[in-house]
Amino acid sequence: MHQQLTIGCTATDFPPLRGSKPAREPGVGHSECQRIHPREGAMHMKSLVLVLGAGASKEVNLPVGGELKQRIAELLDIRFHAGSQRSGDHLIGEAFRLATAAPNEEHGDINLLLHASGMIRDAMPQAKSIDNFINVHRTNKDIAFCGKLAIVRSILQAEAKSNLLVDSSNIHNKINFVAIKNTWFTEFFQLLTENCQRDDLRLRLQQVAVVSFNYDRCFEHYLYFALQNYFGISAEEAADLLALLEVHHPYGKVGELPWMHQSGAVKFGAIPNAEQLLSVSKQLRTFAEGTDPSTSDIESIRAAVLGAQRLIFLGFAFHRLNLELLFLNTGSEPRARTESVFATALGLSYSDIDHIRLELVAKTGVLHDKTNVQGNLTCASLFHEYKRGMSLT
Q1: Which of 6, 18, 22, 367 is 20 to 30 A away from residue 163, measured at CA?
Q2: What angle do the packed helices 218-231 and 235-242 form, to 10 degrees?
Q3: pTM for this structure?
Q4: What are phi and psi of 309, to 5 degrees?
């Protein structure tokens, strides 16, 4: 949440942890850096940096892999008969009409959008992900446009069905923490708040950074309610505290949450109208856009990763393009200060896990026996297994 929530912010520095080892070599230390009050010229030095992939949100009932591709194919199965839409998502269909009717818009022909949506629909069974498909067709602006609309629609629908949704009918309602007690969200919160008094929260939050490759806002949404529930603080104080937490979304997210006090806010799990759908879709980035320093916070992301004492990968698939986004690869970068790596690799083969471990050793400089890549642990189990090694106290 470099939520102070400004895009392109820098991290705050923090004093060394008691008993922590000095970095082997000094490394200085977005995408979308929220940080809600960045300090000018601050260094990216973090005790923990979390890297979140789709598997991290799966523990609160969001779709991954094939589930998400299937949903996107269903949304984009837009067909008309006798002038009426007969299938596919009607909100996306309305967004198509608005986009092609607006003056000075780059999408002037709805038939081209229907053709692009049909291409995405038909290719989803073959594609590794919607992001990969958009990247393959990076010169086709209509495919990127349709794909982003479907991503926003599907992710907001998934948030609404998740275990983190809060009934907005009563302002006193909150997350059902019992329903998520066995997830990594709870494990992380226990780690974050261990031996932490209310007055210590500001410093504790500044010791952590998050790089989320997910479009959802599950992590930020959870912490906002968790801090209020656990420490008995107000919504305003929780929002102010989370402004100190550095959060990056390299490929964007489905809007700012209302408590982030940014324009164009979108409630968690909201049903947008067509205008909002178009607006939020413009906040998403393709692979190419996510690695372009002029349109992303890639430099801040790499600085945060470089300055991490411990790196934790949760539900991350280790796609090469995403690894390239995280790590410099010039051979001339300063040596990372990372001492240990923890990662889930649930569902990956033993061979792939070995390759991933070797690649992480090469990119981080961490010793092989301190690079823990586990193919048999969930995100929650990873925290339980390495609780002491991840501790912030």
Answers
A1: 6
A2: 130
A3: 0.87
A4: -75, -40
Is CATH 3.40.50.1820 the right assignment for the domain spanning 12-61+171-251+286-390?
no
Which residue stretches of the chain are H helix? 2-5, 54-58, 65-75, 90-101, 110-123, 130-136, 141-161, 184-193, 201-205, 218-231, 235-242, 274-281, 287-290, 298-306, 320-326, 350-364, 379-385, 387-390
Domain ranges of the chain: 12-61+171-251+286-390, 65-161
Query: What is the structure's pLDDT at 378?
Result: 98
Burial call 24-33: b when 16+ CB within 10 Å, e when fewer: eeebebbbbb
Q: How confident is the model at residue 21 (pLDDT cuts 50, 70, 90)?
A: very low
Longest dimension (CA), the chain: 72
Task: Give first-to-last CA distance, the chain, whole Å.
Answer: 22
- Tokens 């083969």 locate to 349
Give the model's confidence band at 27: pLDDT under 50 very low, under 70 low, under 90 confident, else very high. very low
Task: Show Cβ contacts of residue 321 under 8 Å, excluding neighbours closer than 6 positions.
Answer: 135, 287, 291
More confidently predicted of 43 and 75: 75
Please compute the mean of the pLDDT values over residues 259-273 and round it to a whole number: 94
